[in-house]
Structure formats: structure tokens, C-alpha cells
Specification:
Rna Polymerase Sigma Factor, Chain: A; about 75% helix
């Protein structure tokens, strides 16, 4: 069963009155939303608050979900809009797969190498315009196709392709300069 089909089955259960089934969707997408939260906020506490806010908005807006897009796309759009609206004061989106859950599985040496690589990449990504950063995060870290990113951000598919291409070119140049 595909993720979309599994989501649809859970949504049918929720609409039939089994509200506890929403926890299945929370478990399924919590890491994705937390990763986006880390992108918008710089600490775990704010990112966790962000996750709660997104799922509360999704729960309260579930009746408006029409199924024209996958539930995961709809939820990611809610998260994106929540992050953008919440960060208007800061005007910056920090990127990278900043998932502390993965770091525990690494050896000490691998963890240090990862921190150094992430540091170089983070520094390079901070130089990118926010619109490039968001497109890269959604494309590489969340695995969304261009059409999915378009549904989340409201940008045209060709614009997203251009942003991803330009961002990769900028990163390549910045990392070559940083590591030279």
C-alpha cells in the first residue's frame, strides 16, 4: 500500500469518528514537520512547539482537506505557511537536516566528521536566498518532487527547478571556495 493510500485509509477512519486514528498520521509525519521546524527555528524547544502548532492546525482544518493533493503535501503546506508566517520577524530560514535523532547512531568519529561537514554546508547555505534554501530542503531532505514543492510553496514548477539548479551551483562554488 502506498503512503497516499495508507493516509487515505486513516483519514476515512478519522472521518468515520475514530479521532484517535489521527495519532497515526502524527507519528508518520512528525519527523518531517520537526525537520521543517528546525529549518525555521534554531532550537529544539521552538521546533517542537512548531510541530504541535502544525498538527493542531491540521486537526482543526481536516474537514477542509479535499484530497486534491496527497495528505503529506497538504500537511507540509500547512507547516510551510506556519513557518513562513511565524518567521516574518526573523526573515530567515535555516536549512539542513538538523535531525538529532540520527546523530545518536553515529560513532564518535563519524559524528565529528558529520558536524564539520554540516558546518561547512550550513555556512554555505546561509549565504543562499531564503527561497533557494526552502526549495532545497523540500527537494533533498523531504524528498518532495517539483510538483509537490509547487503545491507547498505556491511557486511555479519551472521556478522551483531554477531555484534548485541555482542553489546547487551556488553551493558547489561556495564549498569549493571554503574547502580550498
Amino acid at each position: 500500500m502506498t503512503d497516499a493510500a495508507a493516509d487515505a485509509a486513516v483519514l476515512r477512519r478519522i472521518m468515520a469518528g475514530e479521532s484517535d486514528a489521527f495519532a497515526i498520521l502524527v507519528r508518520r509525519y512528525q519527523r518531517r514537520i520537526l525537520r521543517l521546524g528546525y529549518g525555521f527555528y534554531h532550537n529544539q524547544h521552538e521546533a517542537e512547539d512548531f510541530v504541535q502548532e502544525v498538527f493542531l492546525k491540521a486537526w482543526s482544518g481536516l474537514a477542509s482537506f479535499r484530497g486534491q493533493a496527497a495528505f503529506s503535501t497538504w500537511l507540509t503546506r500547512i507547516a510551510y505557511n506556519t513557518g513562513i508566517n511565524g518567521k516574518r520577524v526573523y526573515r530567515h530560514h535555516e536549512t539542513l537536516d538538523n535531525d538529532p535523532l540520527d546523530a545518536a547512531a553515529l560513532s564518535i568519529e563519524d559524528a565529528q566528521l558529520r558536524r564539520e561537514a554540516v558546518g561547512h554546508l550550513r555556512k554555505a547555505m546561509l549565504e543562499l536566498p531564503a527561497r533557494y534554501q526552502i526549495c532545497l530542503d523540500l527537494f533533498f531532505f523531504d524528498g518532495l518532487p517539483y510538483q509537490g514543492i509547487s503545491q507547498v510553496t505556491g511557486l511555479a514548477v519551472n521556478t522551483i527547478k531554477s531555484h534548485v539548479f541555482r542553489a546547487k551551483s551556488c553551493l558547489r562554488a561556495a564549498l569549493a571556495k571554503e574547502l580550498a
